């Protein structure tokens, strides 16, 4: 009985340790991601729809985004116009990556965050 008990133990420990360190590693990464999305939730809303908790209806939602031409789009337009790209200087007004982003709750339609690029 002793030899059977001793047998699997030394073999199992490294395997368990290996699995544990692997899981704890991925767990730390997972906790970082959840910490960013839950505790710092509203400033983390950038230019893409993101999962967050709505402070108005207390639901876990994925935000709806609307893009608006902000200062960044106007500056990019001005710079392109100064360089002489006349037809292209209007491009920032079609490019979502140059626009400010408004995040709304799909549940109660309240504005959750407004991401300004400048
Ligand atoms: Zn809501």
Walk me through the topology.
Elements lengths: L1 H5 L1 H31 L12 E3 L6 E3 L1 E5 L2 H13 L16 E5 L6 E5 L3
Antiparallel strand pairs: 1-2, 3-4, 4-5
Bound molecules: zinc ion.
Membrane topology: Peripheral membrane protein
Protein name: LITAF domain-containing protein
GO molecular function, one term: zinc ion binding
Name the overall outline.
rod-shaped
Judged by helices, strands and strand pairing, the structural class is: alpha+beta
Helix content: 40-55%
What's the count of strands?
A: 5
What's the story with the biggest beta sheet? 3 strands, antiparallel
Please work out how many helical segments DSSP would assign.
3
What bound compounds does this protein have? zinc ion
N- to C-terminal separation?
72 Å
The share of residues in extended strands comes to 15-25%
Report the average pLDDT across residues. Answer: 76
Helix-strand pattern, N to C?
HHEEEHEE
Q: State the strand order across the main sheet.
A: 3-4-5
- Number of spatially distinct domains: 2
Which residues form runs of ≥5 with pLDDT under 50? Answer: 14-41
- Using only C-alpha atoms, the radius of gyration works out to 25 Å
Concise summary:
One of its GO terms (cellular component) is cytoplasmic side of lysosomal membrane. This protein has 118 residues and is of the alpha+beta class.
Can you walk through the features of this model?
This protein is α+β, with helices and mostly antiparallel strands and 118 residues long. Helix content is 42%, strand content 18%. It has 2 domains: 1-39; 45-118, no CATH class. It has helices spanning 2-6, 8-38, 71-83; strands at residues 51-53, 60-62, 64-68, 100-104, 111-115. The strands form 2 sheets. A 3-stranded antiparallel sheet has the order 3-4-5. A two-stranded antiparallel ribbon has the order 1-2. The termini are far apart. The model is unreliable at 14-41 (pLDDT under 50). It binds zinc ion. This is LITAF domain-containing protein. Belongs to the CDIP1/LITAF family.
């Amino acid at each position: 009985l002793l030899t059977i008990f001793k047998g699997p133990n030394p073999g199992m420990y490294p395997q368990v340790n290996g699995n544990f360190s692997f899981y704890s590693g991925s767990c730390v990464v997972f906790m970082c991601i959840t910490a960013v999305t839950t505790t710092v939730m509203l400033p983390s809303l950038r230019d893409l729809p993101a999962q967050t908790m709505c402070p108005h209806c207390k639901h876990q939602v994925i935000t709806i985004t609307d893009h608006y031409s902000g200062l960044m789009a106007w500056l990019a337009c001005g710079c392109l116009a100064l360089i002489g790209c006349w037809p292209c200087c209007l491009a920032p007004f079609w490019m979502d990556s140059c626009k400010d982003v408004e995040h709304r709750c799909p549940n109660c339609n309240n504005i959750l965050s407004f991401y300004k690029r400048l």
